[in-house]
Amino acid sequence: MSAIDKAGQKFVNFKNALCATCKGTNSALFYFAINLNCRQEQFKINIDTRCLVLTQYPGAEIKGVGGLIAQYPKNFEVLCFTDGSGDYANSQAQSNSIGRQRFHEVLKELRVKGFKIFDIETNTLKTKYSKFKKIDISEADYIFVPNLYDNREDTIYLLKHFKQLLKEKERKPKLTIVMYEADYPLCSPNYIANISNIIETKKKMLDIYYPNDQFKNLSEKAIALNAFRALNYNCDYCEAFMTFDIEDFEKINLI
Questions:
Q1: Within the chain, what is the greatest distance between any pair of CA atoms?
Q2: Measured between alpha carbons, how far is 199 from 181 in angstroms, rounded to an integer?
Q3: CA-to-CA distance for 207 and 2, rounded, in angstroms?
Q4: pLDDT per residue over 165-189, tens digit each?
Q5: CA-wise closest residue to 241 among 108, 174, 169, 146
Q6: Has residue 197 been placed in a domain?
Q7: Is the pTM of this model over 0.70?
Q8: Quick check: is 255 in a domain?
Q9: Pair 54, 13 in one domain
């Protein structure tokens, strides 16, 4: 065995040992760092591509995928699993109503193919798999899910329910899972979408969800991440993603 082959084998042994000893979220982090091929290619959608966005609260879909949705609205369906209760400075009932109203307003204005918000209170998705499992994923080519490290209880249970759904439901063999950035940056994005030509639309949608007098420039801060992601590309703004095939996605351990 040559020196190069020995070095390669040593790395493989190290990687296997590391992944075997790490548990929970940490093992997912090492998986991202070691196993992913971070090509950072341009995300492309064809005319017949079917995209499904799963989001844990109203507004997350625009933070993470809003530019891509605005470019290809007829290719997207969006499902929001909680009502946003508690996310606004109002009573729970008022907050629930505001979240729903803004979700419908934004996605109707973008003219997406389809959208739905479920009647689930914030931080209760853990016990709502009976509702979650009713969704149809059979026609999707890409399913967008929030970043594992978004640091919300509902995010973790959305991903857990989705992993269970993949075992139970019919879906395309070449389905691709796409993680997006909503509340926390991705550690190893491998695809980007140039949204420079649609950035004003994304800002407008964010301003509907997060008026400046209530959220202190939140929309500007969200857009700043898109500007930062574009530093290494010939564009002004882009959204970043991590993609997985089904086999690799199922390897991710969740707490």
A1: 69
A2: 16
A3: 59
A4: 999 999 999 999 999 999 899 988 9
A5: 146
A6: yes
A7: yes
A8: no
A9: no
